[in-house]
């Protein structure tokens, strides 16, 4: 294992760009298609902590379901519950490297890790 992981949605152009940038840099990350294999609560909490953005930094607020579930003022626990029940609410791509963890949106953010 390379020590690199990407939480990836192959239908997302930003996620595809980040994965391509990693591979172009000679890195073959562990690819977690989080819609097929969602992370557990502890993993989400670790990612939020390691990114330094808190749980809200993991949430895809642009997703229609975010508004439907009225998550705008929700607590961290409620946000985690929502992401566990609806992985589409997890923002992407999240890249874990040996140095740091980053939300790589926009895709150019991955350069901070390379």
Automatic annotation (TrEMBL):
Position of the signal peptide: none
EC number(s) on file: 1.20.4.1
A single MF term (Gene Ontology): arsenate reductase (glutaredoxin) activity
GO biological process per UniProt: response to arsenic-containing substance
Keywords: Arsenical resistance, Oxidoreductase
Listed InterPro entries: Arsenate_reductase (IPR006659), Arsenate_reductase-like (IPR006660), Thioredoxin-like_sf (IPR036249)
Domain of life of the native organism: Bacteria
Family annotation (Pfam families): ArsC
Catalytic activity: [glutaredoxin]-dithiol + arsenate + glutathione + H(+) = glutathionyl-S-S-[glutaredoxin] + arsenite + H2O
Similarity field: Belongs to the ArsC family.
Protein name: Arsenate reductase
Species per Swiss-Prot/TrEMBL record: Ideonella aquatica
Gene from which this protein is expressed: arsC
